[in-house]
Amino acid sequence: MSESSIIRTKVWSELINVALPDSRFHYNFSEYIPDFKGSAIATDRLVALDAYKNSKFAFITPDNCLVDLRYRMIGAGIPFVMSTYGIYRGFLLMEPGMVPPGAELCAAWLDGMEHYGAPISLTEIKKRGNFDFMVTGASAVSHEGVRFGKGHGFFDLEWGMFTDIGAADEHTAVAALVHDCQFVNDELQPTQTDILVDVVATPAQLHSVNSRAKRPSGIKWDLLTPEQIECTPPLIELKNMLGVT
After folding, report:
1. 184-210, pLDDT tens digit by residue?
2. Residue 209: CB partners within 8 Å, gap ≥ 6?
3. Overall average pLDDT of the 66-94 stretch
4. Is the CB of residue 51 less than 8 Å from the CB of residue 173?
5. Which domain, by its residues, includes 204?
6. Pairing assessment for the beta strands 173-177 and 58-60 based on DSSP bridges
7. Domain assignment of residue 211, yes or no
8. Number of domains the chain contains
9. pLDDT, mean of residues 125-143
């Protein structure tokens, strides 16, 4: 069992005490990143950051713990992109004018994003320019900013695609929002695809990562199977954009 798998299993045994169930996956943390008690307080810490206040275009993962953040961004009129579950249907754009007054919370949920948001391709994202702010949930994240998800590597794929089209780079502000039990002291060694974050927000604290290691860049095509590419439309689009065979 890998180091990340051991830590993930340990964290999940504690997370069950504070996590909120998912309507589809109950408490199966291998299938989703849960919301948790106190997530609104952690969100308060995120929205106080200059990176949030100055954001004109953001990327937010579809994790349950980020519903409140997406709700606040819809209310504040901050355009953002969110991936569909498993990136199976690519990405969705949310921007001002898409959600009628009173429906902001509904729109912040995954099903609501599917209803109110609009599909957006990598080509269209590239035309809009760099993301100012990126926020993700995690199964666990270390004090050095090393984060890993539920084991499927979706955020790593998203980052790889966005860096390949110039929508994100080493200087992009990246934050993770997790419960305190997911913020670990273990000294994790990042793999060649692990994305390090700049800030970790929990209900108890806001932790800034000092002197984080360099992030990887681009999709590592040799690590993907044909099946992974086939079921991820943006990867097919990216292959065509880059001329990858």
Report:
1. 988 777 778 888 999 999 999 999 998
2. 143, 144, 145, 196, 197, 198, 199, 200
3. 97
4. yes
5. 3-19+31-242
6. unpaired
7. yes
8. 1
9. 95
**CATH number for the domain harbouring residue 233:** 3.40.50.10420
How far apart are alpha carbons 215 and 218 in whole angstroms? 10
Q: In this structure, is residue 101 part of a structural domain?
A: yes
Nearest CA among 223, 161, 227 for reference residue 192: 223
CA atoms of 159 and 165, how far apart (whole Å): 10
In a domain, 24, yes or no: no
pLDDT in tens, 47-59: 999 999 999 999 9
Residues in the chain: 245
Asked whether residue 60 is assigned to any structural domain, the reply reads: yes
* Residue labelled with tokens 């000294």: 187
167 token code pair: 């929508």
User: How many CB atoms are located within 10 Å of the residue 229 CB?
Assistant: 17
Of 94, 80, 234, 59, residue with least CA distance to 157: 234
Nearest to 58, CA basis, from 130, 156, 124, 115: 130
Q: What does the alpha-carbon distance between residue 49 and residue 26 come to, in Å, rounded to a whole number?
A: 32
CB atoms near residue 186 (< 10 Å): 16
Model confidence at 150: pLDDT above 90: no
pLDDT grade for 115, boundaries at 50, 70 and 90 = very high
pTM: 0.94
